From TrEMBL:
Residues 276-291 have a biased composition (Basic and acidic residues). InterPro entries: AAA+_ATPase (IPR003593), ABC_transporter-like_ATP-bd (IPR003439), ABC_transporter-like_CS (IPR017871), P-loop_NTPase (IPR027417). The keyword ATP-binding applies. It comes from Altericroceibacterium endophyticum. SUPFAM superfamilies: P-loop containing nucleoside triphosphate hydrolases. This is ATP-binding cassette domain-containing protein. Keywords: ATP-binding, Nucleotide-binding, Transport.
Length: 291
């Protein structure tokens, strides 16, 4: 074997060991998914592909199964039929070992936050770190937790506070810090701005966009917030009639002429969100005065 070949082999073996980062086109691929509870069918033959690096907004009326869809992707809801691939691995068929490998590569902010009320913010962030890296020194773990807390826009002191001592917006940020604990490639956010005032919601959106861009994240973002859709989502998937009836940019969705989509994006709230977004973009494009 020539030296070149040996070098190639060493490099490719080293690469295999650290072959963590997904470089395929779709980190999430859902096909033919059916979910039901008793005789209530929630999803029927639903398909959806999430592109690497995008923020995908997921919308649909209340009770259409957005949260159930997210729970299926992260393996908390076993579907009746269908396949769900995450980073190319079929999560519905995964062996427990494989599953752990995949689970450490995503972060989740559940609807409502779901922080452990008896743990401080820092301890909450440490939970997944302890789970996946039990051998890590406590000092280093605390340090990572502090870093993620600050990265999520909270003051460092917040790490020692309990969830009951935080405002709604701070709780969301603490939940985000925990979701980012393991440097995920994929982030699931279920209604992250629900219950926040408009300024807090806009700041949270901005943080999500910044983190997604700087960390190269793919984001699966369930939301009712029209401002969020216009401001930070690359594409939007619409859940209705037990399926994803359309996926695309907002102008592309409007071309589908589906009654729910038209009503949703042409209603007065949507028009206001769109106008605000357009004004903000126009302001961005204006040359700075006095430069
Ligand atoms: N564990 C469960 N057992 C039985 N039914 C369930 C369960 N989880 C969800 N459902 C039902 O599935 C349907 C979809 O619920 P889901 O929480 O996904 O809605 P959603 O689209 O997230 O709504 P929202 O916008 O209000 O959060 C609802 O009718 C709900 O009652
Ligand atoms: Mg929900």
């Amino acid at each position: 074997m020539s030296e070149d070949h040996i070098e190639e082999q060493v490099i490719s073996e080293a690469h295999d060991e650290t072959a963590e980062h997904f470089d395929g086109k779709y980190p999430i691929e859902i096909e033919g998914l059916t979910n039901s509870f008793g005789d209530q069918v929630i999803h029927e033959n639903l398909s959806l592909k999430v592109k690497r690096g995008e923020i995908l907004g997921v919308v649909g009326g209340s009770g259409t199964g957005k949260s159930v869809l997210m729970r299926s992707v992260i393996g908390l809801q076993i579907p009746d039929t269908g396949t769900i691939k995450v980073f190319g691995n079929d999560v519905t068929a995964a062996e427990p070992d494989e599953e752990i490998g995949i689970r450490s590569r995503w972060g989740i902010l559940f609807q409502g936050g779901a922080l452990f009320s008896t743990l401080t913010v820092g301890e909450n962030v440490e939970v997944p770190i302890k789970q996946f890296y039990p051998e890590l020194e406590p000092e280093l773990r605390h340090e990572i937790a502090r870093y993620k807390t600050v990265m999520s826009g909270l003051p460092a002191e917040a790490a020692s506070k309990y969830p009951s001592e935080l405002s709604g917006g701070m709780k969301k940020r603490a939940g985000l810090a925990r979701a980012l604990a393991l440097d995920p490639e994929l982030l699931f956010l279920d209604e992250p701005t629900a219950g926040l005032d408009p300024v807090g919601a806009a700041k949270f959106d901005e943080l999500t966009r910044d983190l997604a861009d700087t960390l190269g994240l793919t984001v699966f973002l369930i939301t009712h917030d029209l401002d969020t859709l216009y401001a930070i989502c690359d594409r939007v998937a619409v859940l209705a009639d037990k399926q994803v009836i359309a996926v695309g940019t907002i102008p592309e969705l409007l071309e589908t002429k589906h009654p729910w989509i038209e009503e949703y994006f042409n209603g007065p709230r949507s028009r206001a969100a769109s106008a605000t977004h357009e004004r903000a973009q126009a302001m961005d494009k204006q040359p700075e005065s006095g430069a």
